[in-house]
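Database export, one record per block. Field names are fixed; values are copied verbatim from the stored entry.
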Amino acid sequence: MKRAIFERTSVFRKRFASAALFAMLFATLFSLGGCATTGTASGDDPLEPLNRAMYEIHQPLENYVARPIVDVYVTLVPEIGRDIVSNFFGNIEDLFSGISGLLQGKFDKAGHDFGRVIINTGFGLGGLIDFASDAGIPRGGEDLGLLLAHWGVGPRPYLFIPLLGPTTVRDGAGMAVHVYASPVDLALGSKNVALRNTLWGVGTVNLMATGVHASDLLGDIGLDRYTFIRGAYLQRRAYLSGDTKFGRIELDEDYDDGYSTPPSETSQDTKDATP
């Protein structure tokens, strides 16, 4: 997913060109989404025929490419090693979460995230050890897609990308910025291409392991897996953005992803607790 293959003499130019291609892709898909209003596709998934085709491509890729790689990774790398990899990239996620929270005015979340980055980077060997979690400092759980949502950017259309999984134009745009503004690439750039690519390679395999595990959790649900994945993804993103509506998908009043609390509920709880 997170590929950094820029050459030594043209890092900036190639990064700019790749970002432009991403922007063109998402803009094209957005335009298609606005026009595709017929067929069986729902309002949030006007590209459903294309997305279902991508999902059909995804399944054999996951089973015959991602899963064998993940099996080797889990076999060769002990759990503590996998935790170190997760901690390192989680530290980068905390940095982007802090920036997103700050730009949304969520200063408590931003403070926690930046505090986590300072502690884990300074005392945790560059983020390899997660001392912040041991100290009880929570993750903000924000990202650039949620920042765009806060700024009023709509999510449509829904997209399914092989090996990457479900996303939307909005979340995909945030993901693209995340990839090309990564501290790993900015810090190493062309100075140490081998180390940079190794880090991204290990991070990608670790992310694939998460995706395979999530797929295993679904098991044989007895439902249309594509529809189930789409609904679960859109509801969770709506929950995290604090929206009660995500496109055409209404959230259940009792919906809880077990991960975090929307800002609206947090503020309401605070009011209720006030004597």
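Remark 1: DSSP finds eleven helices and four strands in the chain.
Remark 2: The two ends are 49 Å apart (CA to CA).
End of record.
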